[in-house]
Write a structure and sequence with these properties.
The protein is α/β, with parallel strands linked by helices and 250 residues long. It contains eight helices and ten strands.
Length: 250
Amino acid sequence: MSSPSSQQPPQPVLRLKNLTRVHGSGATEVHALRGIDLAVFPGELVAVMGPSGSGKSTLLTIAGGLDSPTSGQVIVENTDITAADRKTLAALRRRSIGYVFQDYNLIPALTAAENVALPRELDGTSARKARREAIAALEEMDLGHLADRFPDEMSGGQQQRVAIARALVGDRRLVLADEPTGALDSETGESVLALLRARCDAGAAGVLVTHEPRFAAWADRVVFLRDGAVVDQTLRSDADSLLTGQAAER
């Protein structure tokens, strides 16, 4: 049995190194991200907060491989996705990264179960097994009874929960959520955060973009952005009083 001092420290699931993103050029140049360094470890949920235009959503889309940085590196599960070919990146996004979009991004022609099962089927899982996993994920969201309904037959909040089920289905090691509670009432939003928290407690890494202090309070760490740069980081042990104070100021 190895001694504690000889054990290897955990490796981050997500690592952002000196990340920058510039839109436009010349007089229209906008620095969306400025030298971001961030590591998110297994079992950790990190909340990202900041005013509108601070770079929160840009950070998330780049971390998920949906956009490319102007400079810097994004490393997911020891793979530098900024240098990966399209095939490698697509496989990583299907297997390891779950992404919850603000606007759901559900396919209108597919049922709820088919939308949730799609990434698993694209990765080679049999249709039968993928549907079983999809139904289980929908039931976690209390949506099992809507498995065979199409998106336009559901409310906005129901569609959002289907999108979250799709992000959590299978063994996703990294879950990225961009305002996942925006279309949900407070009670349902809390239940969704409890599921994200449970997935991280089971070993996944999570990044949550939110403007709500009560949802950020579920995180282990809160990262504050302003003008594309990290201006503060607060551990969970210190975050409750800080976030409570921010809420009281509103």
